Amino acid sequence: MKVLLTGSTGQIGRGVLEKSLESPDITSIVVLTRRELPEAIRNHPKLSVIILKDFTSYPPEVLKELIDVDACIWSLGVLAANLTFEEKHRITIDYTFAFLEAWLKSKDTIPESQKKPARFLFVAGHFTRRNQELKIWFKAEQRLLGGRAQNQLIEYAEQRSSSLELFIINPAFVYTGFSLLSYLFPSISGELLSNAMLDVAVHGGELQILDNTALKARGVTGTHKKM
């Protein structure tokens, strides 16, 4: 199976990349990134790295790499507090849909008899809000944008149900090692989250939206738990 990852320099993306490299189910990994990965990782035989400065534009040589990608785990976070609303919108929504359009278009070259739905995992977050009418006082722009992206993705996938399988990943606080905060707030370990996402990427599932509880359960029961 060929998987594409974004956000691989962040905490969540880095964890799922490491698990992907270990997984016998994943035979090929493409990392889409704006900067180079550490040398120790980028030389792995299963890994191809595409450095793309503009995530809204996909040249022919990149489209060629996307044709046989079976699943994508999209984990581009918006953490910097000094970003403008326009920059946050560009990263959260514009980048996401530009990729989806390019990815699905690349598969037009596949014969109909060989086509299967592309599987897209969108990593949002526990605190994003799909209800755009809510009054939110803490990180309102970011949380509402994440919710808006989910709403638009659900509608987009419904219109393309024969070619796209959508899964929305909503983890709570993600921690590695020991964390006192994990006892105080809704949380999930990075290992369990990576297990869960890879299991969904490989096998799909009935739940379209996986909250923290569902992710913890999938991380424990999924086939990737013993990697």
TrEMBL record:
Name of the protein: NAD(P)-binding domain-containing protein
SUPFAM superfamilies: NAD(P)-binding Rossmann-fold domains
Xref: PANTHER family: NAD(P)-BINDING DOMAIN-CONTAINING PROTEIN, OXIDOREDUCTASE HTATIP2
Naturally occurring in which organism (per UniProt): Gymnopus androsaceus JB14
InterPro entries: NAD(P)-bd_dom_sf
